Amino acid sequence: MADSAPRPLRADARRNRDKILAAAVRMFAEEGLDTHLERIAKEAGVGSATLYRNFATREALIEAVYRNEVAQLCDAVPDLLDEHPPHEALRAWTRLFLDYVTAKFGMADALRAIAAVGNNPYGHSRDMIQAAITTLMDACAAAGTMRTDISPTDVGAALEGIALTSAGPKHRERAERLLDLTLDGLTARS
Protein backbone atom coordinates (compact mmCIF):
# COMPACT_ATOMS: atom_id res chain seq x y z
CA MET A 1 0.00 0.00 0.00
CA ALA A 2 1.46 3.37 -1.02
CA ASP A 3 2.03 6.07 1.57
CA SER A 4 -0.12 9.12 0.76
CA ALA A 5 1.98 11.56 2.80
CA PRO A 6 4.13 13.83 0.64
CA ARG A 7 7.83 13.13 0.74
CA PRO A 8 9.93 15.78 2.46
CA LEU A 9 11.76 18.07 0.07
CA ARG A 10 15.49 17.77 -0.45
CA ALA A 11 17.47 20.63 1.10
CA ASP A 12 18.12 22.32 -2.25
CA ALA A 13 14.49 21.96 -3.30
CA ARG A 14 13.38 23.42 0.04
CA ARG A 15 15.76 26.38 -0.41
CA ASN A 16 14.38 27.01 -3.91
CA ARG A 17 10.80 26.84 -2.61
CA ASP A 18 11.64 29.29 0.18
CA LYS A 19 13.33 31.66 -2.29
CA ILE A 20 10.26 31.56 -4.52
CA LEU A 21 7.94 32.32 -1.59
CA ALA A 22 10.14 35.22 -0.41
CA ALA A 23 10.34 36.66 -3.92
CA ALA A 24 6.58 36.27 -4.39
CA VAL A 25 5.87 38.20 -1.19
CA ARG A 26 8.13 41.05 -2.36
CA MET A 27 6.79 41.07 -5.92
CA PHE A 28 3.15 40.83 -4.89
CA ALA A 29 3.67 43.72 -2.47
CA GLU A 30 5.43 45.85 -5.09
CA GLU A 31 3.49 44.99 -8.23
CA GLY A 32 0.29 43.29 -7.13
CA LEU A 33 -1.00 39.77 -7.52
CA ASP A 34 -0.95 39.96 -11.33
CA THR A 35 2.86 39.97 -11.36
CA HIS A 36 4.14 37.62 -14.04
CA LEU A 37 5.25 34.34 -12.49
CA GLU A 38 8.37 34.37 -14.67
CA ARG A 39 9.40 37.65 -12.99
CA ILE A 40 8.96 36.01 -9.59
CA ALA A 41 11.12 33.08 -10.72
CA LYS A 42 13.82 35.49 -11.94
CA GLU A 43 13.66 37.48 -8.69
CA ALA A 44 14.03 34.21 -6.77
CA GLY A 45 17.03 33.19 -8.88
CA VAL A 46 15.35 30.01 -10.16
CA GLY A 47 14.04 28.90 -13.52
CA SER A 48 10.37 29.05 -14.47
CA ALA A 49 10.26 25.25 -14.48
CA THR A 50 11.33 25.21 -10.84
CA LEU A 51 8.59 27.67 -9.94
CA TYR A 52 5.93 25.66 -11.79
CA ARG A 53 7.19 22.37 -10.31
CA ASN A 54 6.55 23.85 -6.86
CA PHE A 55 3.43 25.86 -7.70
CA ALA A 56 1.46 24.69 -10.72
CA THR A 57 -0.80 27.76 -10.75
CA ARG A 58 -0.82 31.37 -9.58
CA GLU A 59 -3.52 30.41 -7.09
CA ALA A 60 -1.31 27.67 -5.63
CA LEU A 61 1.51 30.20 -5.22
CA ILE A 62 -0.78 32.79 -3.59
CA GLU A 63 -2.16 30.17 -1.20
CA ALA A 64 1.36 28.99 -0.33
CA VAL A 65 2.51 32.57 0.28
CA TYR A 66 -0.43 33.11 2.60
CA ARG A 67 0.16 29.87 4.52
CA ASN A 68 3.86 30.66 4.77
CA GLU A 69 3.14 34.11 6.19
CA VAL A 70 0.85 32.58 8.85
CA ALA A 71 3.50 30.01 9.76
CA GLN A 72 6.21 32.68 10.07
CA LEU A 73 3.96 34.81 12.25
CA CYS A 74 3.17 31.94 14.60
CA ASP A 75 6.69 30.48 14.57
CA ALA A 76 8.04 33.83 15.81
CA VAL A 77 6.46 33.36 19.26
CA PRO A 78 9.12 31.10 20.89
CA ASP A 79 11.97 33.34 19.72
CA LEU A 80 10.22 36.48 20.92
CA LEU A 81 9.64 34.90 24.33
CA ASP A 82 13.29 33.82 24.47
CA GLU A 83 14.53 37.30 23.59
CA HIS A 84 12.11 39.52 25.54
CA PRO A 85 10.08 39.62 28.72
CA PRO A 86 6.58 38.26 27.98
CA HIS A 87 4.78 41.62 27.78
CA GLU A 88 7.41 42.99 25.37
CA ALA A 89 7.22 39.76 23.34
CA LEU A 90 3.45 40.22 23.03
CA ARG A 91 3.91 43.85 21.99
CA ALA A 92 6.51 42.85 19.35
CA TRP A 93 4.28 40.05 18.07
CA THR A 94 1.34 42.42 17.61
CA ARG A 95 3.54 44.46 15.24
CA LEU A 96 4.29 41.28 13.28
CA PHE A 97 0.53 40.61 13.24
CA LEU A 98 -0.02 44.02 11.62
CA ASP A 99 2.57 43.18 8.97
CA TYR A 100 0.83 39.88 8.34
CA VAL A 101 -2.63 41.45 8.03
CA THR A 102 -1.32 44.20 5.76
CA ALA A 103 0.15 41.54 3.44
CA LYS A 104 -3.04 39.47 3.64
CA PHE A 105 -5.15 42.55 2.89
CA GLY A 106 -3.49 42.82 -0.52
CA MET A 107 -4.32 39.17 -1.19
CA ALA A 108 -7.91 39.25 0.07
CA ASP A 109 -9.62 39.10 -3.33
CA ALA A 110 -7.35 36.32 -4.57
CA LEU A 111 -7.85 34.31 -1.38
CA ARG A 112 -11.63 34.70 -1.67
CA ALA A 113 -11.45 33.51 -5.28
CA ILE A 114 -9.41 30.48 -4.22
CA ALA A 115 -11.97 29.71 -1.50
CA ALA A 116 -14.82 30.09 -4.00
CA VAL A 117 -13.52 27.19 -6.10
CA GLY A 118 -13.47 24.88 -3.10
CA ASN A 119 -9.96 25.27 -1.70
CA ASN A 120 -9.53 26.53 1.83
CA PRO A 121 -6.50 28.82 1.91
CA TYR A 122 -7.28 29.71 5.50
CA GLY A 123 -7.05 26.10 6.65
CA HIS A 124 -5.90 26.11 10.23
CA SER A 125 -4.62 29.70 10.21
CA ARG A 126 -7.17 30.94 12.74
CA ASP A 127 -6.32 28.07 15.11
CA MET A 128 -2.59 28.68 14.66
CA ILE A 129 -2.97 32.38 15.41
CA GLN A 130 -5.16 31.67 18.45
CA ALA A 131 -2.53 29.22 19.73
CA ALA A 132 0.18 31.88 19.30
CA ILE A 133 -1.91 34.46 21.19
CA THR A 134 -2.66 31.92 23.93
CA THR A 135 1.03 31.11 24.36
CA LEU A 136 1.93 34.79 24.64
CA MET A 137 -0.94 35.53 27.04
CA ASP A 138 -0.09 32.53 29.21
CA ALA A 139 3.50 33.73 29.47
CA CYS A 140 2.33 37.24 30.38
CA ALA A 141 -0.11 35.89 32.98
CA ALA A 142 2.61 33.68 34.49
CA ALA A 143 4.84 36.74 34.75
CA GLY A 144 2.01 38.67 36.40
CA THR A 145 1.98 41.34 33.70
CA MET A 146 -1.42 40.63 32.14
CA ARG A 147 -4.96 40.51 33.36
CA THR A 148 -6.33 36.99 33.50
CA ASP A 149 -9.99 37.87 32.89
CA ILE A 150 -9.54 38.31 29.14
CA SER A 151 -9.60 35.37 26.72
CA PRO A 152 -7.24 34.84 23.80
CA THR A 153 -10.31 34.92 21.55
CA ASP A 154 -11.11 38.44 22.79
CA VAL A 155 -7.54 39.57 22.20
CA GLY A 156 -7.60 38.01 18.73
CA ALA A 157 -10.84 39.83 17.90
CA ALA A 158 -9.36 43.12 19.12
CA LEU A 159 -6.24 42.61 17.00
CA GLU A 160 -8.32 41.73 13.94
CA GLY A 161 -10.49 44.81 14.46
CA ILE A 162 -7.46 47.09 14.73
CA ALA A 163 -5.85 45.49 11.71
CA LEU A 164 -8.99 45.65 9.58
CA THR A 165 -9.66 49.29 10.33
CA SER A 166 -6.03 50.32 10.06
CA ALA A 167 -4.53 48.00 7.45
CA GLY A 168 -1.99 49.46 5.10
CA PRO A 169 1.13 51.55 5.45
CA LYS A 170 -0.69 54.90 5.53
CA HIS A 171 -2.55 53.86 8.70
CA ARG A 172 0.36 52.13 10.46
CA GLU A 173 0.93 54.85 13.05
CA ARG A 174 -2.72 54.83 14.09
CA ALA A 175 -2.75 51.01 14.22
CA GLU A 176 0.28 51.00 16.52
CA ARG A 177 -1.37 53.57 18.81
CA LEU A 178 -4.49 51.40 18.98
CA LEU A 179 -2.37 48.34 19.72
CA ASP A 180 -0.62 50.20 22.54
CA LEU A 181 -3.98 51.24 23.99
CA THR A 182 -5.25 47.67 23.80
CA LEU A 183 -2.12 46.18 25.35
CA ASP A 184 -2.10 48.81 28.09
CA GLY A 185 -5.69 47.81 28.88
CA LEU A 186 -4.56 44.20 29.26
CA THR A 187 -1.83 45.07 31.74
CA ALA A 188 -2.32 43.67 35.23
CA ARG A 189 -2.85 46.41 37.78
CA SER A 190 -1.60 45.97 41.32
Report the sheet-strand fraction: under 5%
Counting DSSP E segments of at least 2 residues, the number of strands comes to: 0
State the secondary-structure class. mainly alpha
CATH fold-level name of the largest domain:
Tetracycline Repressor, domain 2
The total tally of domains equals: 2
Q: Tally the helices.
A: 8
The CATH architecture of the largest domain can be given as Orthogonal Bundle
Order of helices and strands: HHHHHHHH
Task: Describe the protein.
The protein has 190 residues and is mainly alpha-helical. The chain folds into 2 domains: 10-56, Homeodomain-like (Arc Repressor Mutant, subunit A, Orthogonal Bundle), CATH 1.10.10; 65-186, Tetracycline Repressor, domain 2. Helices cover 75% and strands 0% of the residues. The protein contains 8 helices and no strands. The longest helix is centred in the middle third of the chain and has 31 residues, at 86-116. It starts with 10 loop residues before the first helix and ends with a helix.
Key attributes of the depicted protein:
Tetracycline Repressor, domain 2; 190 residues; 0% strand; Arc Repressor Mutant, subunit A; transcription regulation; transcription; mainly alpha
Explain the layout of strands and helices:
Layout: H1 11-31, H2 37-44, H3 48-54, H4 58-83, H5 86-116, H6 125-143, H7 152-166, H8 172-186
Helix pairs in contact: 1-2, 1-4, 4-5, 4-6, 5-6, 5-7, 5-8, 6-7, 7-8
